[in-house]
Amino acid sequence: MPTSVIETITPFVEPQSVALIGVSTRTGPGTFNILEELLTYGYKGKIFPVNPKGGSILNITAYTSVAKLPETPDVAVVSTPRTAVPQIVRDCVSKEIKGIIIITQGFTDADDDEGQMLHQEILESIKGTQTRIIGPNTLGVMNNFNRFNTSFIPIDSDCRNLGVICQSGIFMAGSGDFSGGIGIGIDIGNTSDLDSSDILEYMGEDNRIEVINLHLEGLSNGRRFLDVMRKVTASKPVLVLKTGTSEVGARAAGSHSGSLAGEDHVYNAAFQQTGAIRVTDVDQMSDLTETFLTYKSMPGKNIAIVTISGGAGIIAIDAVSNNNLQVAKFSTSTNKSLTEIFPAWMKPGNPTDIWPSGMSKGYHKILKQSMETILSDPGVDAVLLISPAYIRPENDPLNIINLIDQIAEKHPEKPTASWIFGPHRKTYASKLKQKGNIVVYPTANRAMHSLKCLHDYLNPSYPTQKNAIVELGDMQKDLVAGIIESNLMSQTTTLNEQALDIMHAYGIPVIKSGIATSPEQAVEKAQKLGYPIVMKVISHQITHKSDIGAVKLNIKTEEEVHKAWNEITETVSTISGARMLGVLIQQYCTGGTEIILGAKRDPQFGPVLIYGLGGIYTELLKDVSFRIAPITPEEARSMIKETRSYKILTGLRGNTAANIDMIVYSLVRLGQLMSAHPEIVEMDINPLLVDSNGAVALDGRIMLKKM
Description:
By secondary structure, the protein is α/β, with parallel strands linked by helices. It has 26 helices and 31 strands. The protein has a seven-stranded mixed beta sheet, with helices on both faces.
């Protein structure tokens, strides 16, 4: 059996021989003949066409069946009607062919039951064998390094150090437009067997691949995806375009690939935690592909702007600010040097408008002096050059291609980016791309977004390799397991009061409380806890207690306890089917900020943690963040900081800052609770009351499901 992902995927990507099963005898334009396309592409390995008619196709001997092949090829490409595919897969297994690429559509992407049955039949055929499958419903594999391409449509794509993993052939067929070329591309199609994690791990090991583009519709094993992505992003950037983010798009993705689309905010958390860079469209993917293939260094966030237009410089300043970068402050030496070449009436600064000096002293001369001076400033980490492309480069007196390329080459540690505008921008961009030192962006904002992503990825704090999860030693796992088991045995799946006991067992601070089954017990508990207190109904049939008036606050005396008991009892009696088991007595707390901590079990990724502003604001503001559990304290702190309400906790407008360390502490413990007990499918701590002294959970709810 293969011992590594390299051994598994190599037959697909670097085959020395290939069988084309179901290849047509028709050739010529419009016939979509894989054999013809493969020959045109320049593949040099052995090719074995398989067609029931036999004979020869394009002067290559064709064989009537897989069994008749003179040797076992590295990979088989299947493009027959779907009903024939399962038997062909079995024939390939019998021939001990290690890799099968199924081009054919109509399996999990089909609208009928037969497609699902055929899909399962394919999987059964390879179970327990050494044969692996890419597809069905795929263009297959493109390897420009060795000119191997299984596409049935002609693709003209330059070779570059880029890996593409997709669930739609458009990203390979359109690679010239989307990514400017391709090194290795694999369309995983319906992912019946090999999936994006397998291919991602392979491309992470291939030293020819410097950047990876991943188009993702869905996953079936989110936990493995997390592990692989962390490993790969530690050495090379992975740009992820996750489609199916809308409700309608998610349904379409499921229909197209048969994958589980999942909740988008959970995928977003997965990308954040693993260091993957999420892009929103093919424009961002294209920008960032060029950025990461061109620039290998960016010391900081300080951007200098050199411009031919004052207005364009202001646009660029806004772009810098909008992308959380900084306008560089020039050193005294830099300002002095610029003063010497600027008109007397013009004070140098950032942006640096070189047009007035360029008109009088020569545009190229002033550009060279300004750029070299600014790039030499230790306070500058990158430069955005804004220049026009009004006429074709060969006729343009402002043609700066060779000049800025030479300058950029001298300063590889600081990106020289360019926003070139005008009718001939694409021509300028193409010529500078060939030089390999500068990226030309169509707008200042796209340039700054790209540089921000570059800076963030190269930053030492970027979350590529996750800090080790340290399991806390003071958690009472057996106690919690017993509570869960006893409730499931009695078919109780919603825990309210016992949710507080479970939290306490995992070290999450909870409010002091007690249970009373009579008014007299309620008074006794209240006196023990100390007034004022809170009284909450205990009933399996009532979840949202405050909505029906079954929660009484700020009770200060024995008389008020009796009155509250009677009112709660009367309220419950009006609710059909509700049974009152008693009342929960708690200390009454005021002040502080109400936080919600929650968790939900996702089908792809497992337990997902939720953090946000709690109480009545949870549904109103929806200011929440997500992470996949378990998490580190660093990840917990990031969850808190990325919400808009974070400023409230830091002491906004003179208020006392909250104890954020206790929220971090509680989030980490909640993550370990969810990870240790898969029977918990959903959990809320709402609210967790936090102030400057600490935090305490006032209420909670746990939903259980038997495993």
